Amino acid sequence: MRNVALTGAVLAALALMPQAASAQEIKPGQAENMVLLPKFLGIAVFDQAHKGAEEAAAELKNPTKLQFLGPTPENSVAGQIEIVTNATTQGVNAIMISNNAGDQIGPAVKAAHDKGITVVSWDSPIPSSEGEDVFVAQVDFKETGKVMADMALKILGDAGGKFAVLSASPDAANQNAWIAAMKDALKDAKYSKLDLVETVYGNDQSELSYNQAVALVDKHPDLKLIMAPTTVGIAAAAKAMQDEKLCDKVKVSGLGLPAEMVAYTMNGCAPAFALWSFVDLGYLSYYTAYALATHAIKPEEGAKFHAGRMGDYTITKDPTRAKGLRILMGPFSVYDKSNVEAAAK
Amino acid sequence: MKWLQRHVRPEQVRELSLLLLLVVAVVFFGSLIDGYYTSRTFNRIASSVIIIMVAAVGQTLVVLTRNIDLSVGSLIGCAAYVTGHELGLHPGMHPLVAVLIAMALGAAAGVINGALVTLGRVPSIIVTLGTLAIYRGILVDYSGAKTITTDTLPAWLLNLPQATLATIGNLDLREMVVLALAIVALFQFATTRMNFGRLFYAIGSNPDAAHLVGLPTRRIVFAAFVLSGALAGLAGFMTLARFGTITVDNGRGVELQVVAAVVVGGVNIFGGSGTVVGAMLGAVMIGTLEQSLFRLQINEFWRDALMGLLILLAVASDAVILSRMRALWARTELKLIAKPAPAPASGGAQR
Description:
Chain A is α/β, with parallel strands linked by helices. Chain A has helices at 2-21, 44-59, 76-90, 106-114, 141-156, 173-186, 206-219, 231-243, 258-266, 278-293, 340-344; strands spanning 34-37, 67-68, 94-97, 118-122, 134-137, 161-167, 194-201, 223-228, 251-254, 273-275, 304-306, 312-314, 316-317, 325-328, 333-335.
């Protein structure tokens, strides 16, 4: 009897120790059926995340092939709910989702979670955090707001001026959080000359984003900058300003992919923009989901694990949501004429 | 009244009233939007409307035969993407080859639509609703999530939307606009003056009668779908030139705008009546509305709702006003035929 209790105590201590002291190593080679679910298929950044996840899957020697499932662009919200529901019925082990459905995804995710499926959100979280184990945040959302405000200040200079935001869809949790964080950052006196006049939505569709950008300059003749925190929107806005021969007057900035933006940065239409590595984001999301699904770590504050080539990560409280946990990836890369060409290759 | 009835057809009244509506819309938006009456607004609407316009010409041919082609949105996306992809691989390609690739791709998809409708005897709304999803699905798969970006495209293509043939005052007459107008003129001529073109009307007004008198019903319906596909392909090429950045999402929802242009332009959804010029005016109307509502930054749900209201009004007015006019016209024609003898004499005396 005493023996059992002692063994129990030792085991408990052993179980606690690695989490408290050092990062938990993950045991590779376990069969976990995992689903990577992007906002929708056919966008370069999600393809890059898929690549990163495949890289992690190969390193972790998961014998079960990763499922990369996504809705078609016109069916994003309903499609995501359907895929989560189907994956739950099939009884997969882990779902990694870049949420494009706001809190509408809630019931489907909760059903998956109740069935014991690991749910990791990445890129775009579930706003209420209901049913989600942890959110793998690409960057700190507050920092995104500050980076955007800083780029605006750098481009507009001390004279300042009017600028507008061209976002994706009004339901995109990540974009909304970044815009809110930027508005917060703008309250600082140093940005007092920056005047945010309007936020419009291009739904991550090139044509709509293009038309919205053009309408913005028509409506605000003294507009100096369009800030687009979406890779589709920023490229479309830059092309629109180039076509309108307005690149000298109206600059474009935001979050963009170097390969898609290199031409506009070199010709001055989009002097600076920022992004993080989506390959790394996919890689880290896979490691996180695998670690949770194999019970190497628990989804709780302070849990620490070793994510291959990217090093150690710790689960913390998510300061940008009321509830919910997060793993912060970072950092930002800001691109301009000096480094965009190298990054585009 | 008789003179009016003899020289003006109901369809022309329809087009005139649409033109009047267009003027009303422009005056209305002009009063709401500062700096609306500028060359910039004109150039903006002109270069945005041509994509819908070209696809609407093809759609008109299909609708005339009492069918519908809903797959054009996906076709535009596919043609834009594939042509952009090929141009990226072979930047030295002759411009004409690029246009032909886009049109051939559209025509090939049109062959599938046409074959399913004519040989498979499946209603066109079902066939093209299916192919709308299928063509988009193929594109998502084919693209491998790559985006066509401007830096892979040749300079001539990127400069094409700005290429101007002539400038009247501040108004640019852009090459792509001229091309779209030429296509409207060509098909207007073909459908009003050529035997081949009149067959579309004959089949649409009474398919059974057309079949009984030995018209090649199936071949004409098939041709309508192939032409609609080819013109959607051309619209895809124009999309590529205009937007440069092409994702798999390209052209989504355009089919509704195209059908709206055709219906608002007075082409009867039950076939047999309407003109290509009417569809062109419908496209201009929708383009003007869309661009102007953008300027007002109206919420997109309201924008869609307004578009829907316009379609309903167009169809309702077609049913109520035009059918009465047609009845009136037909009655007078009967009277004219009934007493042919005095007609030339009195007519001659009056002139």
